[in-house]
User: Which sequence fits this backbone?
């Protein structure tokens, strides 16, 4: 199977078209859109209440840890769906591979529980 650089021309054209559309849209909307500035428009706005104090209040690391763990286990569930759809076609070998996958997932979950990463203080 031979391929030359001419085979990649449609991909290049589509990329250029997509990038050109995005850049063109941004430039045209900046030129055609209204651009009136005033003191009220340039003020910081948060729910109609003036800001008081420092905006850089540190969040607890637990919040980010729970968010990352949620994404991790959510992605793992996404891998279960194709396996469930093709369960009969995969046969015994697919079952063994999924058992290994789920075992590694449970080991990670028990490690998280052991480290008390999901407990709030």
Assistant:
């Amino acid at each position: 199977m031979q391929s030359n650089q001419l085979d990649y021309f449609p991909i290049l054209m589509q990329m250029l078209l997509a990038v050109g559309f995005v850049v063109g849209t941004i430039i045209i909307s900046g030129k055609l859109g209204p651009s009136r500035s005033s003191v009220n428009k340039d003020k910081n706005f948060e729910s109609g209440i003036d800001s008081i104090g420092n905006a850089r209040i540190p969040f607890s690391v637990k919040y980010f840890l729970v968010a990352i763990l949620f994404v991790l286990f959510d992605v793992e569930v996404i891998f279960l769906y194709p396996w469930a759809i093709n369960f009969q076609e995969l046969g015994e070998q697919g079952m063994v591979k999924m058992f290994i996958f789920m075992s590694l997932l449970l080991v990670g979950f028990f490690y998280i529980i052991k480290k008390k990463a999901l407990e709030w203080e």
Q: What stands out?
A: The CA atoms of residues 76 and 105 lie 8 Å apart. The chain has a mean pLDDT of 84.
